Amino acid sequence: MNAHTALQTLGHFINGAPVADTARTQPVFNPATGQIVRQVALASEATVETAIAAAAAAFPAWRDTPPLKRARIMFRFKELLEENASRIVALITEEHGKVLDDALGELQRGIEVVEYACAAPEFLKGEHAKNVGPAIILVLFSGVVTLLGSAFYGILTLLTLPFASLFIVHMYRQFNGEKVV
Fold first, then answer.
1. What HEC string does 112-170 produce?
2. What is the pLDDT of residues 132-156, one digit of tens each?
3. pTM here?
């Protein structure tokens, strides 16, 4: 057995279970030392299709999960990131060659994004005023004013776009009498 095959192989986790697809692997190098520290499994086409099918099957239940319950899941994710900070920072340092302070900063910025996502139920509350003009709806979404009419006009920051776009589409459909899914 050579040193390459004795290394830990990072595989795939699909539908709540590890998937053994290690026919093709690629080494993971520590940029500071140049040493191979582990290897990563490269997914076959079948593994990719399995992952896509699992995601598609999980989507309806996630879509129907109330925002507050989703936020609780994100809060737990945030807790796990904080509880495992030293391990995560060590991996960032080892696999990306970052100094410890940079790795800590990167993790903290990631946690801040998760914190932002945890506030989604509050963002979804929003406010709206129907009939502010001919076929126009005024939506106040987290301090951002958006007008919905026959054409979509909006002012969104890059940070709010992922959350706002879902809310705005939902509101647009609701006010135009479309079935909201």
1. HHHHHHHCHHHHHHCEEEEEEECCEEEEEECCEEEEECCCEECCCCCCCHHHHHHHHHH
2. 455 554 555 544 444 444 333 333 3
3. 0.62
